Amino acid sequence: MNRSPQILLVDDDPIIRSGVTRFLSDNGLQVTAVTDGPSLREQLASVQIDLVLLDLMLVGEDGLSLLRFIRTQGDTPVIILTAMAEESDRVVGLELGADDYVCKPFSLRELLARMRVALRRRSSSQSSTGGHLFYFDAWTFDTRARNLISPRWGHVELTTGEFSLLYAFVEHPNRVLTRDQLLDLARGRSSFLVDRAIDVQVMRLRRKIEPDPKSPRLIKTVRNGGYLFTPVVTRRGAGAQHV
Amino acid sequence: MFEGKGAWLLNGGISRRIALTMIASLLAIQAQAFLQLKLFSTPALHLIGTRQFESAAVYVYNELFAAPISARAQLLKALERRFSLKLEFDRERPREVSLLDSSQASHLAQDFRARLGIAPGGLIVSQLERPAPFPVPNLQAEISPTPSPGEPSAPGNTEPDTLVSPNLRIAAQGPDGTWLSISPVVFDERSYLQGPYVPLLVGGIIIALFSVGTARSIVKPLDRLVLAAARIGRSREFVPVSSEGLHEFSAVARAFEDMQERLLRFIDDRTQMLGAISHDLRSCLTRLRVTAESRGDATAQKILIREIDEMSAMLESTLAFARGEAHRSPSQSVDVAALLISLVDDAIDAGVDAYYSGPNHAEIRAVPISLKRAFRNLIDNAVKYGGVARVSLDMDEAMVRIVISDDGPGIAPERIDEALMPFRRLDNARSGTIPGAGLGLTIARDVILSHGGGVSLRNVLPTGLRVEVNLPSICGDRREQY
User: Fold this and answer.
1) Distance CA B246, CA B218 (A)
2) Do A207 and B360 touch (CB under 8 A)?
């Protein structure tokens, strides 16, 4: 990223527009704020946009239909701003190809962290195979719905730290990852994984996914090296079509 | 006994029900009497024709005196039964008791002497003056006896037969000098004893059965009403109150349903209002938060953000309560142990005392988001009020039991029910200045109830609250499916 990323914010609330713009500018991002659909189309047509922040509740044309429009134009990363109550909207948003969501009232720091992840993933996924569904050892890991499904136990809840760690693992299977590398990969994805040592997170994750956590089979410890995610990972999902 | 499709007849009202019951029992008793007569009748009256009596007496006389003395007693019994006669041996000549001048008696005496070849002194025919147990109808009535094979009959007599008077007694002296007295048994005492009591008893039982049945059928809808009324308000679902049966009860059932509808509408209005207010408030909070984070000094920012977070949490729980979200999303299989471990780990990362003990995996059917909210509320409560959250899980085939306990002051036993009510913050030692909307436990309970589970709160010694959650395990769920 040589130039500062160009962000397009779509929200009809002037206070939120000015607050978000100010905060993001302070953090080195170029922000253009618009209020509605027509101005969004205009911006997309004229400027190279690296990421769209899209409020789902807009006056006039709603956010979901704008999201559909953005997806017809290309694979610009989109983070949707949504209220907790509109869970169905959130799911539809992710299914329509939004990269992530934040719930109102959101923390600007968290928003920034998620934007960084989306931007980085987009730049790195130019070479990767894409997709948000990972399959390993009969498990299904849906990074978009933040869902881990086991054939034996059903929906297995992950903490934010475990999610980020597993994400790092499934994206780099069969590669020895040092603790620093893991911390770096995982931290980029979440602002929550902080003080806890990577070892603790690995131990927790093993408890969730290993049939026998005492003699791990999926996440192996490499002496003086770090950790190795051993299963074969298949990646699929809607994300692949944009690459 | 009054269920089924034909029940319309009985759905009228109490008066009609009682009238029908009486008619039905009357009919039943009549039917019983008819059956008794048809199937088990033992005629009480033995009407014997003179000719038949005469033949029987001759036969009995000959048989008895031909038999050895030792066998006579037994034979006597057999003959008594066979011919419906009363037979008696007597060593002495029986006294002639009020011998009446009866044409039947003298006629018989002549016949007997001729047929048995006994001297005039050896035969006494007497008609005892004994009141008949009932008037014998028309003693002169013609009967045609149908003697069974082997039974002696008087051949060649074509005279019209007459009935034997029940008071007749013949005493005849046998060849060995013993007297034998023969008299007809007209009235069977056994059937007299059986007769009136059995129908009375059976009739009584029939009436009792009908009465119990009626009483049950009247009370049953009342029981259903009580059960339904007990369920109203426990859940936020509409409880249908059965309106079958008596129309008096249907009216009550309808009133109950109307009342429920009004209550539910009232609650709906309130939750809708709550939802609308929360939504607007959240927009304000978002603006506040964005403004606070994007400018201002660090200390003010910190305080503001903490307050905003607190308000957001309250709003979120209010909204969750207003939505009753557990009723919407489809359930899937969920690893409840992993869920609890995640919540405990999150709490540990947030710097609080939290522990989990139990298996690493436990599968149940649930709505993951709702379940997570419920347990997060319970764990948050334990941490907020009790300083620590100790979570344990154990399971058997039917249930998964989760216990969350803390070291706090607990809840006064009489206020435990109150603690589960919405917006109820027990403002005493337990809450103090701890913020919250007072919805945590309510939402948890709602969610757990909607998953077919149960919650119970209990104080533990020396101090602390123990929340026990029971959820149906997936094994039990599968057993239900197949």
Assistant:
1) 8
2) yes
Q: Which of residues 120-139 of A touch B (CB under 8 A)?
A: none
Domain ends where: B133, B155, B187?
B187
A222 Cβ contact list (under 8 Å, min separation 6): A176, A228
Which positions in chain B touch A208 (Cβ < 8 Å)? Answer: 338, 341, 360
pLDDT tens-place values along chain B, 482 residues long? 444 445 555 566 666 777 777 778 878 887 887 787 777 655 555 667 777 788 888 888 888 888 888 888 888 888 888 877 888 888 777 766 555 556 666 777 777 777 777 776 777 777 665 544 444 444 444 444 444 444 444 444 455 667 777 677 788 888 887 888 888 776 554 444 455 567 777 777 887 788 788 877 777 777 777 777 777 766 666 777 766 667 777 888 888 888 888 888 887 888 778 777 877 888 888 888 888 888 767 788 888 888 888 888 777 777 777 766 545 567 788 999 999 999 999 888 888 899 999 999 999 988 888 888 889 989 988 998 888 999 999 998 889 999 999 988 888 777 777 777 766 666 554 455 555 666 778 888 888 888 888 888 888 888 888 999 999 887 544 433 33
Distances (CA, A) of A167 to A132, A163, B4: 10, 6, 62
Residues A30 and A111 in one domain: yes
In contact, A52 and A10? CB cutoff 8 Å:
yes
Q: Of the residues B294, B323, B352, which one is the last residue of a structural domain? A: B323
Q: Does B174 lie in the same domain as B37?
A: no
| Same domain assignment for residues B24 and B108 | no
Please name the residue that has the structure tokens 């690893």: B335
Is B316–A84 a contact, with Cβ atoms under 8 angstroms apart?
yes
ipTM of this predicted complex? 0.70
Can you give the residue range of the structural domain that contains A62? 6-124
Q: Are B336 and B382 found together in one domain?
A: yes
**Gyration radius (Cα) of chain A, Å:** 19
Q: For residue B305, give the CATH number of its domain.
A: 1.10.287
pTM, 2 dp: 0.55
Question: Within an 8 Å CB–CB cutoff, is residue A204 touching chain B?
Answer: yes
Q: Which residues of chain B lie closer than 8 angstroms to A18, CB-CB? A: 294
Structural domain including B460 reads: 326-481
Mutation for testing the A interface, residue in B271, B277, B294 having most A CBs under 10 Å: B294
- The CATH number covering residue A26 comes to 3.40.50.2300
* Inside any domain, residue A1: no
- DSSP, residue by residue, B373-438: HHHHHHHHHHHHHHSEEEEEEEE-SSEEEEEEE-SS----GGGHHHHTSTT---TTTTTTT----S
Take residue A80 and report the two structure tokens written for it: 């949707």
Q: Are residues A118 and A142 in the same domain?
A: no
Number of domains in chain B: 4
